[in-house]
Amino acid sequence: MASEVEMRNVSVAAPAGATILRDVSWRAAPQESVALIGRSGAGKTTTLRLINGLVNPTRGQVLVDGADLAQTDLITLRRRTGYIIQGSGLFPHRTVYENVATVPRLLGWNEDKTRAAATELMEKLAIPFDRFAHRKPRSLSGGEQQRAGIARALIANPPLLLCDEPFGALDPIVRRELQQAFVALRADATIVFVTHDLNEALRVAQKIVLFDGGTIVAECATGDFLRCDLPLARELVASATLAADVA
Amino acid sequence: MNPFALEILRTTGEHVVIVVVSVAIAAVAGIPLGIWCARRSAASGTVLRTVDAIQTIPSLALFGFLIPIPFIGGIGMRTAIVALILYSLLPIVRNTYVGIRGVDPAVREAGVAIGFTPRQLLMQIELPLATPAIIGGIRIALVTAIGVATIAAAIGGGGLGTFIFRGVAMVDTTLILAGAVPAAILALLADLILTAVERRMREP
Questions:
Q1: What pLDDT does B172 receive?
Q2: Could you tell me which of B127, B101, B122 has the C-alpha nearest to residue B112?
Q3: Residues in chain B closer than 8 A to A164 (CB atoms)
């Protein structure tokens, strides 16, 4: 069962009083894949972090599966929400396997089930269990760390995946490989991801939400984005070198 | 064995007991205090300034101040231990605080986002990652306490300072060395052992 995400008139103010987000409303339907794009500081990461309660709204409501996060047990929600960030955020003192097994252990899976799931997933992500399970994150390349981070987020088949520039720090070839692996592995989860790479948005998302200065300026199906006549959208399209598969 | 050597051994033993008991109690109190400071940035300034201030009291004066205080003061080993606990707090509290504050924010956030409770985050992520820093704080506390404990003899606390004070009073270098050399060896040993432990903890 994929999750549904909705924001209703959400505003976020910084402690100093500056407004980070102003009156933001949008929705991700179950199994939909939504890209949040825009310039740095436009509010896309804050929007993403609202969904698992890392940021609280100053006004408005954030709903996951129809339940207001203000009345939801965030610990439970987070355990069934995959979260992938740039730089992986792996726990440096734990092995790759211990990292991948984090959520299953929190959920009380038995060791056999955890190990089987990790083995299968790590194989698909090209970090085979035999070679990688017992290594510490710092001995892995950036791409391998990112793969391990993705395995950690996906292992318990979360109905909701949140990604912040998941492939941002990677070279174009590894990036492309990981995007493909990711699309293949997403199963039927709802995905919300932040990116500044328009190709990535067009490749992975069904819907694009465009942010500017803390508000949403456009929300449209991926197919329509290239025809969107907003100045900012046209600027983004013009400045991106569109890859052959998305143009 | 000649009686002089026996007395060196006995006072060395006393010295070790005073120092180990003090630093152990300081660690039991100081590590939770450091954790608490790392959690509450508003209170941390006051606590850290207080333990800083204790450190600035000259050690002989601190021993002296404690003598008239009921229950914890007086003449003897107990007062020496109280003073050494106070001295050992600073490096332990500060290093615990710095160690936990130094955890990579991305790693901490990953822990929160994955669904750790605050207690799980502390026990499984923050404390393990802060352990080398905490061991470093205990090492500094131990080495300092071994030196400062020699002054405990001034208030009848025993330990290797007994020889030093007697040597100073009699202008007898041999007696001073009988206290100073074992104290220096103890400090070097403590430093070597804990540096090794600290390094092992930092290894990937």
A1: 92
A2: B122
A3: none
